[in-house]
Design a protein that fits this description.
mainly alpha, 48% helix, four-stranded antiparallel β-sheet, globular, two-stranded antiparallel ribbon, 18 helices
């Protein structure tokens, strides 16, 4: 759940001299991990049983390097993930588990649409939870020197789950990055936020929707979700304004946005809270304001496109209309995006890896160059900007 999929792709790679030990012989690495687990207090026999059958998984490493879907523009990505069938099944699940959602909203203040959207996107409402051996994946990724600091703690958390009877290193499966269950939670998060919602004495996130939904809600609360507040609202924007104000880090009150000509599409603000204006495809495309709860989404996943799509889908499941796609300027191809990132980096901007992904660093650099060149500073990269550079 947290730090999944694109999240892992967007975190800077570790250096060869990683902060945490990694690499070398996989067998030696397993032995070192087992010894460290025992030094941390694990029962030696339990640690031996946990690590004994672990195998390096090349498919996990391959999956870690495949992130092409996150290069899609918001509109294309949303249309790929959101369908009438997913909406209908989401609404059916909302009715079927209404008692659980009522309890969630009372105890954690997390709206049902938010959890339904994650449930849909992560596993298609539980239908596709992943078939990677969880322990193999976690140890493989801890051994790999790309992001060992993320996965080493998850290995030890998985060992604790095993000791508690909540994980079998031979049979427990999930996503390639080690997430388990219907809303895809990492072992550390299961330990901290797992809830036995159905009262059967176990926390089962793979077969119990009630356990999975309650655990996901508790986790969102622990990450800072503000009870009973909105997260996203579609707006209309004027034909021209200072587009550089459309940025996650810039927050204004509804009154301040109204003074700039921004207005809710349905005529009413969802809340009198500070909000950021989001233009995922520039000033001629869709427009939203994001309230404080929107920031919590980035603790679940760090891809802006994924987060915005999940947040929007949550509003759709609760009755919001289809967003106005507008008529945005065409986006760049993968090769063009990489060329743009190279040009931005050459001008001194920190865009991270040259990966073709429109991440936060690339957006900030695009906005800065648009301002310098006198173009609409909406952080949407176009061929006009590429050619100008």
């Amino acid at each position: 759940m947290r730090q999944t999929l694109a999240a892992l792709a967007l975190i800077p790679l570790a250096t060869a001299a990683a902060a945490q030990e990694c690499g070398g012989s996989f067998a030696d690495f397993k032995q070192r991990m087992e010894s460290e687990a025992v030094a941390r207090g694990a029962d030696p026999a339990t640690a031996r049983a946990f690590f004994d059958g672990v195998r390096q998984d090349q498919e996990t490493l391959a999956a870690d390097r495949r992130q092409g879907v996150f290069t899609l523009p918001f509109t294309d990505f949303a249309r790929r993930l959101i369908s009438a069938d997913r909406i209908n099944r989401g609404q059916a699940n909302a009715r079927q588990y209404a008692d659980t959602f009522d309890r969630i909203e009372a105890e954690y203040g997390v709206s049902r649409g938010v959890l339904l959207a994650f449930w849909a996107f992560e596993t298609d409402y539980g239908a596709f939870q992943g078939d990677f051996n969880t322990v193999n994946s976690l140890v493989t990724l801890a051994h790999d020197c790309r992001r060992p600091e993320l996965f080493r703690p998850q290995v030890f958390a998985a060992l604790e789950l095993f000791a508690q009877g909540g994980l079998d290193p031979d049979t427990t499966t999930g996503a390639w990055a080690g997430e388990i269950g219907m809303v895809q939670m990492l072992p550390e998060d299961i330990l901290e936020n797992g809830v036995d919602a159905d009262g059967n004495g176990t926390v089962d996130l793979k077969t119990s929707p009630r356990d999975a939904l309650m655990s996901g809600a508790k986790m969102l609360q622990s990450l800072g979700w503000r009870a009973n507040e909105p997260w996203l609202e579609e707006v209309d924007v004027p034909a021209s304004m200072d587009w550089s104000q459309a940025a996650l880090e810039i927050k204004k009150s509804p009154a301040e946005w109204e003074a700039l000509g921004v207005a809710p599409r349905d005529g009413d603000w969802d809340a009198d809270l500070p909000a950021s204006l989001l233009l995922p495809q520039g000033h001629e495309g869709p427009a939203f304001v994001a309230y404080p709860n929107f920031d919590v989404y980035f603790e679940w996943n760090q891809s802006f496109t994924y987060v915005l799509t999940a947040a929007y889908f949550a509003t759709r499941l609760e009755g919001a209309p289809v967003f106005d796609a507008g008529n945005p300027a065409p986006g760049l191809s993968d090769a063009q995006m990489k060329s743009l990132q190279q040009k931005l980096a050459a001008r001194g901007h920190d865009v991270g890896d040259i990966d073709g992904i429109l991440g936060a660093g690339t957006r900030a650099a695009v906005r800065a160059e648009q301002q310098r060149l006198g173009l609409p500073a909406d952080a949407w990269p176009t061929t006009q900007l590429l050619n100008a550079l």
